[in-house]
Design brief:
The protein has 213 residues and is mainly α. It has 2 domains: 3-73, Arc Repressor Mutant, subunit A (Orthogonal Bundle); 78-211, Tetracycline Repressor, domain 2, CATH 1.10.357. The protein has 10 helices and no strands. The protein has helices at residues 3-17, 26-47, 54-60, 65-68, 75-98, 104-121, 123-130, 147-162, 170-190, 199-211. The longest helix is centred in the middle third of the chain and has 24 residues, at 75-98. The protein is elongated and about 60 Å long.
Length: 213
């Protein structure tokens, strides 16, 4: 049985077995999730998300699969939590870098440089995020539609507007900015054998071309 089938079976078992079980305290939830996230990060980085079962995560976290489901509804739920933690760190670093200047174009450059630097310094996280296509199930939504991502898109949009882009081009420039940042990241991380220019040089040219097209 594949992992999805096992999760469906475990979900039904969980509904039967947890009925009437004492609710976890906030401290217990936090401690349990920390153990699960640490185990999942290690396994996902070592083997890849698709190759890791929910039972393997539970075993590494020193708990049963049924116990794990008290903290997360699915393996994807664990992955999304990890993604949220990773992007919270990236977004904080990007905003801190951008805050060093009042010029919107320079702020975009600084943000992009911090974005790329994070991924270069944490290639295992890059693979964990971009090595798997997001696949929501049931009533789940795409991570790209989450509040944390929406806030950052609004931030980029505001900087692009402040840089003097006409209103009718802002959304396109926003998409181009995101694609360009990811393109630099993917090139430097996944094709390191190429003799790339420094990331900051690539980003400076990218932002200049974007805003002066």
């Amino acid at each position: 049985m594949n992992d999805e089938g096992a999760e469906a079976r475990d979900s039904e078992d969980r509904r039967r077995r947890t009925k009437g079980r004492k609710a976890l305290t906030e401290a217990e939830v936090a401690a349990g999730r920390a153990k699960i996230l640490a185990a999942a990060r290690t396994l996902f980085a070592r083997k890849g998300y698709a190759a890791v079962s929910i039972r393997a995560v539970a075993a590494t976290a020193d708990m049963s699969a049924m116990s794990l489901y008290r903290y997360y509804p699915s393996k994807r739920g664990i992955l999304v939590h990890i993604w949220a933690e990773i992007f919270a760190d990236i977004f904080a670093a990007g905003r801190a870098a951008a805050a060093e200047t009042t010029d919107p174009a320079a702020a975009l450059e600084a943000y992009a440089a911090a974005f790329v630097r994070y991924w270069i310094d944490h290639p295992e996280n890059y693979v964990m995020v971009y090595g798997e296509k997001d696949a929501p199930v049931g009533g789940e939504t795409f991570f790209a539609d989450s509040g944390i991502v929406a806030q950052e898109l609004a931030y980029f949009r505001a900087l692009i507007e402040q840089a003097g882009q006409p209103p009718e081009t802002v959304d396109l420039r926003l998409q181009q900015f995101i694609c360009a940042m990811h393109g630099v990241c993917n090139s430097l991380i996944m094709i390191p054998e190429m003799r790339w220019a420094p990331a900051e040089t690539l980003i400076r040219g990218m932002v200049s071309a974007l805003l002066h097209d």
